[in-house]
Specification:
Helix content is about 25%, strand content about 30%. By secondary structure, the protein is an alpha/beta fold. Its EC number is 1.2.99.5.
Length: about 130
């Protein structure tokens, strides 16, 4: 089962607090998840902590599921960072910031596990 979602990203307090420790577990935990409304998680048959594959026209990434009923149905949020960057629009339109909002995405449960920062960078450098 896949759901379609409007993918956005942005800074979070936890993500910002761990910017200087990008190879540490604390940064991995602060950035390698996708928040969905619990209704969307139910549609997927997913629970918090399950692995989700998020796919957009820009790439795909595996992240952990997290419930956030403050998100409207159909909205997916991944904190700003390397995991989000793999599926967001890299075009900066000359302003230096990539497109962080409104990226159409498909989300599904997967048996794959999210990659840590070093493994994620290695994977995308090789492709």
């Amino acid at each position: 089962m896949k759901i379609k979602a409007n993918l956005i990203s942005g800074r979070t307090a936890k993500q910002g607090a761990n910017l200087e420790a990008k190879t540490y577990k604390s940064y991995f935990e602060a950035c390698s998840y996708c928040e969905l409304n619990s209704v969307d998680l139910d549609k997927l048959g997913a629970y918090e902590g399950n692995s989700l594959k998020v796919t957009s026209e820009f790439g795909e990434v595996v992240v952990f599921a997290k419930a956030n009923d403050g998100n409207p149905k159909g909205l997916a949020f991944i904190p700003m960072g390397p995991w989000a960057n793999t599926v967001l629009n890299p075009d900066t339109h000359g302003c230096g910031m990539p497109g962080l909002k409104g990226v159409p995405a498909e989300i599904e449960i997967t048996d794959e596990k999210p990659l840590d920062m070093k493994s994620l960078m290695k994977k995308y450098l090789e492709n």
